[in-house]
């Protein structure tokens, strides 16, 4: 069985069938220390998400294990190093490595951050904020177009967590900026609920107004994670550190937004202080219970991840 993906320039690619993401799927991140157990357990997560850069150029036993996982679980590939906001364009070597990984794994979802991390050939180990300007919009759209053309598929772009005010530079609101990117490129939105909470707190943003303007029709994935509070900062600063369970405040926000796109898959991130697989799956089970409490549904109809890009 195969399915066809169309994107906005009219190109179509026929790809081998992959395991479907069910409606409302709950996934966890793929960590090397859990890989063997994930292949052995009877009841695992609905899908796995891996960081692209951890598996570029993987070979030998690592690739064999990854392919075994791909045969059992739907996969999501999440990039952290493409530097979508870089004015010097996409690094062609990095893009080719991503294409090779995507072609090999055929993941249900591919995503990247709305950020930049490369300048004058130097890569920074951080996701740096993009000014919300017309110039940045042109850069981002060109870079997203470049990636989608090379991959032959739609990608999702993640809303940022904010720590620095760029109000003096910004000429768009974040939601208007996201909407224009989506309209111009046909990409989707990875809505990180934890990022939305953190940005609202750190930027003293009206969270209700922000949520009212999000282009919910374009959301293709939810992210949930824990955060910390740096009380030594002035004023105190929320940090998106992915090092703890999801907080009650973020669960509450999740319950609000999933009503707007209930079929979308959810990823539980936990990248620091990584727990046991059992504990992580407990957090995924909590997400299922939150969904059931909020939506009152056990729907398992297939989720169509590869929506056409107009």
From TrEMBL:
Q: Which InterPro entries match?
A: MbnB/TglH/ChrH (IPR007801), Xyl_isomerase-like_sf (IPR036237)
Pfam families, sorted: MbnB_TglH_ChrH
Top-level taxon of origin: Bacteria
- Name by which UniProt lists this protein: Uncharacterized protein
Q: Which organism is it from?
A: Halomonas cupida
């Amino acid at each position: 069985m195969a399915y066809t993906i169309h994107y906005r320039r009219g190109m179509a690619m026929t790809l081998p069938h992959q395991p479907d993401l069910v409606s409302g799927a709950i996934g966890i991140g793929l960590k090397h220390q859990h890989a063997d157990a994930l292949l052995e357990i009877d009841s695992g997560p609905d899908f796995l998400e891996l960081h692209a850069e951890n598996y570029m150029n993987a070979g030998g036993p690592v690739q064999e294990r990854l392919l075994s996982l791909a045969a059992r679980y739907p996969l999501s590939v999440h990039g952290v190093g493409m530097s979508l906001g870089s004015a010097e364009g996409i690094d062609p070597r990095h893009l080719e490595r991503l294409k090779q990984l995507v072609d090999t794994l055929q993941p249900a979802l591919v995503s990247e951050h709305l950020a930049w991390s490369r300048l004058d050939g130097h890569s920074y180990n951080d996701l740096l904020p993009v000014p919300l300007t017309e110039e940045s919009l042109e850069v981002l759209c060109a870079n997203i177009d470049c990636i989608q053309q090379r991959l032959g598929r739609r990608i999702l772009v993640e809303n940022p967590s904010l720590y620095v005010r760029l109000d003096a530079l910004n000429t768009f609101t974040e939601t208007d900026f996201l909407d224009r990117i989506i309209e111009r490129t046909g990409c989707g939105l990875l809505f990180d609920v934890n990022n939305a909470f953190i940005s609202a707190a750190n930027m003293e943003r009206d969270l209700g107004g922000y949520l009212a303007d999000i282009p919910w029709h374009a959301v293709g994935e939810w992210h949930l994670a824990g955060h910390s509070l740096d009380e030594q900062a002035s004023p105190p600063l929320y940090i998106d550190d992915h090092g703890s369970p999801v907080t009650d405040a973020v669960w509450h926000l999740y319950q609000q937004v999933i009503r707007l796109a209930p079929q979308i898959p959810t990823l539980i991130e936990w990248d620091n202080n990584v727990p046991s697989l059992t504990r992580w799956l407990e957090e995924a089970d909590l997400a299922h219970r939150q969904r059931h409490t909020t939506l009152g549904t056990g729907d398992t109809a297939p989720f169509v991840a590869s929506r056409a890009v107009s």
